Amino acid sequence: MKNFLIDIEKPNFLDRIPSLPGVYQFIDDNEKVIYVGKSVNLKSRISSYFLTDVLPKTKKMISNARYLKFIVTYNEFEALILEAELIKTEKPKYNVIQKDDKSPIYIKITNEFYPRVLLCRKTEIENDKKSSYFGPYLSAKDAKELTRTIRKFIPFAEHKPDDKKCLYSQMGLCDPCPSLIEEIKDKNEKRKLRRIYLKNIYRVKKVLQGKISLVYQKLKTEFDQLVEREQFENARDLYKKISFLEKLTQKVNYPSNYLENPNLVEELRESEIEDFRKFLSKFYKIGKLKRIECFDISHTSGQNVVGSMVVFLNGERQPSLYRRFKVLNSKNDDFSSIREVIERRAKHFKDWGVPDLIVIDGGKPQIMAVFNIIQQKNGIPVVGIAKENEEIVIPLIQDRNISFLKREIKKESFGNLIVRIRDESHRFAKRYHRLLRDNLKKG
């Protein structure tokens, strides 16, 4: 995935597009951007433009396009912010036309005593020079989803202070609520809470500017200060928001980073893999780390037990290579289940390919259940991921005895890679488990 223009008039050009989140740009013969879009799956979304039953406006846009450029992002959240940045800088004409001639959607932060976060169209803001605006966004749905997501880790108000009870304040999404602040008689306490509210608004602005990592660091600092002051209840609430932000972004990047280097994700993932390979080489003889497989078990109280195998090549998931297993043994425990799945996997090394590393979603017991099959019999390195403390678990053989080394994932340079692989394995196993369970209910 290098930075180049793909000629859409050449055959099989869609084969060069990855099934990853990111932003794409259609470009005309003069190399001018005429349309910008984003998707959680670039290949699927871009392919849809070349179907026979597309809308007339879409067909016209494609007829004026000659090239395609895409930028892979870590997640859809970053893609949405980057899309808005590109629309603002490139001003592609078809982004407006595709919206049935409606003016673009913006996120507006009002210039009031208690600033509000609202959605508006361009026609509504032309005479308002005091408020702050972010966008444009291609649809109200995108803008609403963005503000709804931000609100989960940075609360804000959409209403002016009034006498009505704020529903969102009870959910922690409008906290401190301007209406409740205004009810307070103590002036010092009122000023204190307003400063907290304004700090939240400042952070909302930074996220909308793409400065997510700055907000993340400030939240972490605030959390550490709360713990130091032994304000554990407040620290616990803030930790939930930090955890949500970590899960949402995994690894945060400014839109400017992507604009300066469209190959940013590819380079970061290459770095993750190389760092992980160097780490593993301390314990295993490992020359390359191209294919990584991760296995997980899912069930409900021992019922409908299934196993999943997900495959990552060069740090990218490869859904076409995934496999799922309906566990047949009757012992009803995770250890025998994961052993059965690995035994069945080992029978297909010739036709499915041999992994460079196997990751087990589990700790010492799960590794012990499969170690002889994977490492001793087939010589494939194996590590586990212990959920409780988010640790990578490495088995070590010393004088025929097995000991275990544990390292905290988030402190490692390759931590995002491991978490990404583990989460995908967990998602795929849960999906198959739900399918079996639903089929049984229907039957």
Task: Describe this protein's structure.
- There is one protein chain.
- This protein has 443 residues and is an alpha+beta fold.
- The protein has 4 domains: 6-80, GIY-YIG endonuclease; 102-209, no CATH class; 210-260; 267-442, UvrC, RNAse H endonuclease domain (Nucleotidyltransferase, domain 5, 2-Layer Sandwich).
- The protein has 17 helices and 15 strands.
- The chain has helices at 42-48, 56-63, 76-90, 93-97, 122-125, 140-151, 167-170, 178-183, 187-208, 212-228, 232-249, 255-260, 264-280, 334-346, 349-352, 364-378, 415-442; strands at residues 6-7, 22-27, 33-39, 67-72, 105-109, 117-121, 132-137, 291-300, 303-313, 316-317, 323-326, 357-360, 382-386, 391-398, 401-408.
- The strands form 3 sheets. Strands 8, 9, 10, 11, 12, 13, 14 and 15 form an 8-stranded mixed sheet that branches. It has a 4-stranded antiparallel sheet with strand order 1-4-2-3.
- The chain is globular, with a radius of gyration of 25 Å.
- The two termini are 46 Å apart.
- Residues 97-101 have low confidence and may be disordered.
The CA-CA distance between the termini, in Å, is 46 Å
Q: What is the number of beta strands?
A: 15
CATH architectural designation of the largest domain:
2-Layer Sandwich
Cα-atom radius of gyration: 25 Å
| Biggest pleated sheet | 8 strands, mixed
The CATH first-level class of the largest domain comes to Alpha Beta
Helical segment count: 17
Q: Helical content, roughly?
A: 40-55%
Overall, the morphology is: globular
Strand content: 15-25%
- Average predicted confidence as pLDDT: 82
Structural class by secondary-structure content:
alpha+beta
By CATH, the topology of the largest domain is Nucleotidyltransferase, domain 5
The poorly predicted ranges are: 97-101
Number of self-contained structural domains: 4
CATH superfamily of the largest domain: UvrC, RNAse H endonuclease domain
